[in-house]
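Weekly modeling sync, notes
Attendees: S.R. (lead), two postdocs, one rotation student

Agenda item 3: backlog of single-chain predictions. S.R. asked that every request posted to the team notebook include the full sequence so nobody has to chase files. The rotation student volunteered to paste the first one in as an example of the format we agreed on. Action items at the bottom.

Example entry:
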Amino acid sequence: MSLFNVFDIAGTGMSAQSVRLNTTASNLSNANTVSSSLDETYRARHPVFAAELTKAAAAQGGESVGVKVLGIVESDKPLNVEYNPGHPMADKEGYIYRPNVNTVEEMANMISASRAYQTNVQIADAAKTMLSKTILLGQR
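Predicted structure, as returned to the notebook:
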């Protein structure tokens, strides 16, 4: 594997973690919203990642592959239903609906994604340093 492949892999990792951070931020920003029906209620979203297996199968010599974002799925955990007939968003039966976002879990996801992004940046920086030193060796 060449050093240029490291940049590609680290780049796909940073892109994937950026999607994860944006999804987590969306979940956290909607965590306290309220709606008057199940259909209108925000549901937690999570990205789905996979190694780019099609590239891996076509690659010769055991080359490495990056990360691909397959999509973003909604959580199937039940929504939080609360009986609050005095709330302005309550339905006919007096219920309000809150998202199925667990803020503690989302904060842990945010920390994890941030650290994974930072690790990919450090990997790309180390590869850049090694490439620069290799070029300097060739000049002597």
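Discussion: group reviewed the output briefly. The beta strands are 45-51, 67-74, 80-83, 95-98.
Action items: rotation student to repeat for the remaining queue; S.R. to check formatting next week.
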